[in-house]
Amino acid sequence: MEERGVSNSISDSRSAILLHTTAEDHRIARMAAVALGLAIIEGAIPSPLPGVKPGLANIVTLIVLSRYGWRVAAWVSLLRVLAGSLLFGNFLAPGFFLSLSGTLLSLFALGMAMHLPGRWFGPVSQSIIAAFAHIAGQMIVVYLWLIPQAGIAYLIPVFAAAALVFGTVNGAIAASFLGNETGACNDVAGLKV
Amino acid sequence: MKAVIRHIKPGDWLTMCIGCIVVVTLALEFWNGGLADSVVIKSRGKLFREVSLSHNQRIEVPGSMGISLVAIENRRVRIASDPGPRQYCVRQGWLKQAGEIALCLPNQVSVELVGSHRRYDSLSY
User: Which of A154, B65, B70, B101 could form a disulfide with B59, with the two C-beta atoms 3.0–4.6 Å apart?
Assistant: First the structure.
């Protein structure tokens, strides 16, 4: 990523701008696209309560975190939030800031949780911690900006329960993907990455 | 299913347990209205009396149709009788937690339990 530069290629008759991309850039783009696909599939699932979503895209974040580290995971999930908001049409709308704050806080939490001893704690723990951080980040925005009164507090236990359930499920899915690739196999669910 | 559980590490179960505790704590914190200290009785839109729950007593509240009887017993309150036709507030039974309300609309009488600190809701913020 660091050596990415912009250069005008003069030899080309078309005025083209060449972006020198690294293999890591391609990997980030590919994983962000997978995450985006999951987010769109998830958008089609009706939810009984606005804001309660499985967060399937976080499975990708967890896998990326475990394989390529925190920096790549942060790129993937922030790109997913940005591109997702453009696709869903809520860029800079309240929903965008809700997912941005949730994602930022859960990335921060993941940065902490990844240092838990790997012998005892796996992606399930990371996922649960990130899910709680996600709702915490959203609640902060809701309180400070969107609905500055206590009515929403009634829903916090519901959001927390959803975070626990979906965090566990996503973490277990990510853990089984990661667990199944012990060996030379580098193929996650048919996605060459 | 077994294959999935195999990938869950011992510490993950601990995280799940802590998560459960967090959820239960939040539910107790936000869903428990707290213990009620007193009851606010209103009649025809005006405050009729605010009574402590510490004494068992029966209070006759005049409404627009007649008398509603409010009973306080063992830190609980209920509408014991009401002249209204449908008796919804009487059938609501005992109210215990702060924030609970019984309304007798035809007679324009209401009882509301209040705790030491008032909570806000979407109707009265």
Answer: B70
Task: State yes or no: ipTM above 0.85.
Answer: no
Task: Give backbone dihedrals phi and psi of B20, rounded to 5 degrees, phi first.
Answer: -60, -45
B12 plus B51 within the same structural domain: no
Nearest CB to A120; choose among B4, B9, B119: B9
Is residue B104 domain-shared with residue B54, that is, in the same domain? yes
Does B9 contact A176 at a Cβ distance shorter than 8 Å?
no
Question: What are the residue ranges in chain A where pLDDT is below 70?
Answer: 1-14, 149-151, 181-193
Q: Closest Cα of chain A to B4: distance in Å? A: 6
Q: Do B15 and A125 touch (CB under 8 A)?
A: yes
Domain boundaries, position B22: 2-31
Q: What is the CATH number for A138?
A: 1.10.1760.20
Residues of B in contact with A122 (CB under 8 A): 7-9, 11-12
Domain co-membership, B57 together with B82 = yes
Tell the residue number behind the tokens 């078309």, with chain if given.
A14
The answer to whether residue B125 is domain-embedded is no
Q: Which residues pair with B107 in a beta bridge?
A: none
Is residue B61 within 8 A of residue B72, CB to CB? The reply is: no
Of A185, A165, A169, the closest CA to residue A67 belongs to A185
The confidence score (pLDDT) of residue A70 equals 95
Asked whether the predicted pLDDT for residue B78 surpasses 80, the reply is yes
Best mutation target among A164, A173, A177, A181 (most B Cβ atoms within 10 Å) is: A164
- Which band of pLDDT confidence, cut at 50, 70 and 90, is reported for residue B45? confident
SS3 at position A132: helix
